[in-house]
Amino acid sequence: MEITLKNLTKIFPSRNKKSPDDVVAVNDFDFTIPDGKLIGLLGPSGCGKSTMLYMISGLQKPTSGQIFFGSDDVTQLSPENRGVGLVFQNYALYPHMTVLQNILFPLQNLKGEDKLTKDQMLDKAKDAARLVQIDELLDRKPSELSGGQQQRVAIARALVKMPRVLLLDEPLSNLDARLRLQTREEISRIQKETKITTVFVTHDQEEAMSISDMIVVMKQGVVQQTGKPQDVYDNPTNLFVAKFLGTPPINVFRGHVAGSMLYIGSSAVMACPGVKDCEVYVGIRPEGFILDPAGPFENSLRSVEVMGRDVSVVFTSPDSMNPTARAIITSESVIDEKSPTVRFSIKPRKLFLFDFASEKRIRFEVK
Ligand code: ATP
Fold it and tell me: In this predicted structure, what is the pLDDT of residue 144?
């Protein structure tokens, strides 16, 4: 099911007389979610992700704009009539019911021609349980399950009516690191098997990038960039997106362009043909540094952290926007840890320039 969001805006009126400003939770959101894909809605706390999801589900009505499922305008439809499955962070299972009863619950409320016989309901519930691999646990109560198993029950309950759209609001937040990884792989598998158009809300960029076909990066209710995770990572449209994606995060320096040459401090780091003389922010991904004794970018070496496959070189620069900067190089690289300085050359495709005032990307031809 393709979902089209047309100029969606949600404004929460202020209840506080002292600060009368309304909250614009989502601002003119325009996007088409392709049929059968998994979309990661990503952004810092308070950027409007959940509000966006609740508008798609029908739990909240937009202040303006429209929502289409396929060619149906569902903007005014109630959640029950939209055919959506919702999974929240806190599972929200009924504690007094068994796993099976929890999964059956949405089917028992079906009315009219959708009404099912007991056997039909049981078949559907068991199919959903099998899909999320909890068919061994049907007689247990939620309190007798691990967090990961509870979340699977919640997903089975959302899937049992075979919704047109599956909406997941931070579904992994309550799980420990190992279970998060396992459950996110499960979600990806289930989504690929069912091909249900899925929107996955998270503030964890790694989580979103690892399972999404496309990501939508939001900031203060406004979409910053949409695209395939790798494309957005490789081609951020502004400093916010560049900083939001990637662990360890991108290193940001103050720099300037003079005569088509990029300078950080007095180091002439790279040619940037066609860029006019200006102040810039320079973003360099940690994997964009090459250890090079003759390299143009000299910094003070702080420490070297060996992490198995990779080596993390921590350095400082008076032009860095953070107290320390970090380069990731392969463990075969030879580095003199006693040296007070470290020199790098830079991989051109891993360096981005941003306008100092607008923080928008300044593009130039990379040789
Ligand atoms: P988080 O990751 O913390 O859940 P989020 O990106 O999902 O955040 P939302 O919950 O969508 O953000 O909230 C967006 C903005 O709208 C926030 O500033 C929030 O305070 C505000 N907001 C959300 N719901 C309401 C409401 N019912 N009344 C007033 N303001 C609200």
Answer: 92
The average pLDDT across 43-66 equals 93
Average predicted confidence (pLDDT) for the chain: 90
- Residue pointed to by tokens 């009539």: 81
Residue 320 to residues 25, 80, 252, 312, 363, Cα–Cα distance (Å): 33, 52, 6, 17, 21
Give the distance (Å) from ligand 1 centre to CA of residue 42.
14
Q: Is 197 helix (H, G, I), strand (E, B) or coil?
A: strand
DSSP secondary structure letters along 238-300: BHHHHHHS-SSPPEEEEEEEETTEEEETTEEEEE-TTPPSEEEEEEE-GGGEEE-TT-SEEEE
Q: Cα-flanking dihedrals φ and ψ of residue 96, to 5°? A: -85, -5
> Rounded to an integer, what distance in angstroms lies between the CA atom of residue 313 and that of residue 251?
12
Give the integer Cα–Cα distance in Å for 302 and 312.
11
How distant is the alpha carbon of residue 136 from its chain centre? 32
Strand runs labelled E in 108-184:
165-169
Dihedral angle sign, alpha carbons of residues 165, 170, 175, 178: positive
Quote the ligand 1 centre to 341 CA distance (angstroms): 46
Which pTM value belongs to this model? 0.87
Q: How far apart are CA 130 and CA 120, in angstroms?
A: 15
Distance 94 CA to ligand 1 centre (A): 26
Fill in the DSSP letter of residue 17: S
Q: Which of 145, 49, 43 is nearest to 102 (CA)?
A: 145
327 phi/psi in degrees, rounded to 5: -115, 140
For 148-266, list the strands marked E by DSSP: 165-169, 197-202, 214-219, 222-227, 251-258, 261-264
Ligand 1 pocket, residues with Cβ under 6 angstroms: 12, 23, 25, 43, 45-51, 203
What integer is the mean pLDDT of 6-25? 83
The reported pLDDT for the residue numbered 91 is: 66
For residue 53, what are the CA distances in angstroms to 12, 143, 256, 296? 15, 28, 41, 47
pLDDT in tens, 263-312: 999 999 999 999 999 999 999 999 999 999 999 999 999 999 987 788 89
